[in-house]
Design brief:
three-stranded parallel sheet; alpha/beta; Rossmann fold; globular; 263 residues
């Protein structure tokens, strides 16, 4: 969720952030049983507010810990979400930030250690086998933003990282798509919805873009998305259960045999 200061705008009553928090509460309450949810917030950088959990109370409490800050690093928010989904992939947001917003090669004024870390990240991503976009069935990202990226990695580069892993990203543009709020006050460039980028992120990852201009719209969007969340499939070792069942059948067969021949 975007927690940039533009989320304090009042074009959505009472404010964008308050309406977004309430809609997220409705999403949490309506989640299918067994679905785990993690929460990442982003402004100038991105932090994990809550690791994936099925603890509904923990989710609700996490929503109250949002603090509005300067900047909008949409790409950082998406990359941090991928790091949570794939903890064994070694996705390091700091190393990616060291590589520069364009992820271009070279030191760019960084220390040799920082440049080496960034180059290692870039090499690992280039060598990673690509999955079919949308093929990952164990999780998805819902990305809510109300403005334009002002810092951090290019969100389209982050979307390609998600697509490479088969992760769908459902993007939600929150706020009015016009350049003025309900009172007629002109919104700054940074506070205006960047619908083309959000649509492109969804397209690259085989996700879907939604526009929500009110708290009620956002609640409806979340309800649609909650129905699409897939339960994680877990492999369960059942050979021991089958062996136990076979033993029980064998004992039952022996017992029936003894009863038969006694007759």
């Amino acid at each position: 969720m975007d927690v940039s200061r533009s989320m304090a705008a009042t074009d959505v009553v009472p404010t964008r952030i308050s309406a977004a928090q309430q809609a997220a509460r409705d999403l949490i309450v309506g989640l299918p049983s067994g679905v785990r949810l993690g929460i990442v917030s982003f402004a100038a950088t991105a932090i994990v507010v809550l690791p994936p959990t099925d603890n509904r109370l923990g989710m609700l409490e996490a929503l109250d810990r949002f603090e509005l800050q300067n900047g909008t690093a949409t790409g950082s928010g998406l990359i941090q979400s991928l790091a949570v989904l794939f903890p064994d992939d070694g996705i390091d947001l700091e190393a990616i930030l060291f590589s520069g917003e364009s992820l271009a090669p070279g030191t760019g004024g960084r220390s040799l250690a920082e440049a080496a870390a960034a180059d290692a990240v870039r090499k690992r991503e280039l060598e990673r086998p690509s999955a079919q976009p949308g093929s990952y069935r164990h999780g998805a990202v819902i990305l809510l933003s109300d403005g334009r990226r002002t810092t951090g990695p290019d969100p389209l580069d982050a979307a390609r990282m998600a697509a490479q892993r088969g992760v769908r990203v459902y993007t939600v543009g929150f706020g009015v798509p016009q350049d003025a709020d309900a009172a007629g006050s002109r919104l700054s460039y940074e506070m205006q919805l960047d619908e083309p980028t959000l649509r492109e992120i969804a397209t690259l990852t085989d996700g879907e873009y939604f526009q929500a201009g009110s708290a009620a719209d956002l609640t409806r969007v979340y309800r649609q998305l909650s129905g699409r969340l897939a339960l994680e499939r877990r492999e369960v070792e059942i050979s021991a259960l089958l062996a136990a069942a076979s033993a029980l059948l064998l004992v039952a067969a022996c017992g029936l045999s003894l009863l038969w021949f006694r007759r």
